[in-house]
Specification:
Blueprint (H helix, E strand, L loop, with lengths): L1 E6 L2 E6 L2 H13 L4 H11 L6 H17 L4
Antiparallel strand pairs: 1-2
Helix pairs in contact: 1-3
InterPro entries: RHH_dom, RHH_sf
Organism: Bauldia litoralis
Pfam families: RHH_4 (PF13467)
């Protein structure tokens, strides 16, 4: 599903499946931040060759993998 967001003053769209978007929303809520603010952080930190949609999926996956780890 495509979603339109505003990052650093410009509009863009990302294609992220509902389970990843839901996870991103949960992460943002747990950090008391907006989804747009979390995406802006992801955008700033992602490698140049990784598109934003993929970077969001990787971020969500890494977050939940860390929680699921035995020492997480």
């Amino acid at each position: 599903m495509k979603r339109s967001i505003s990052i650093a003053g410009h509009r863009t769209s990302v294609s992220v499946e509902d389970p990843f978007w839901d996870g991103l929303t949960e992460i943002a809520e747990s950090r008391k931040r907006s989804v747009a603010a979390v995406i802006a952080d992801i955008d700033r930190e992602r490698p140049e060759q990784v598109n934003l949609s993929s970077a969001i999926r990787i971020f969500v996956l890494q977050h939940y993998r860390k929680i699921a780890a035995p020492d997480g």
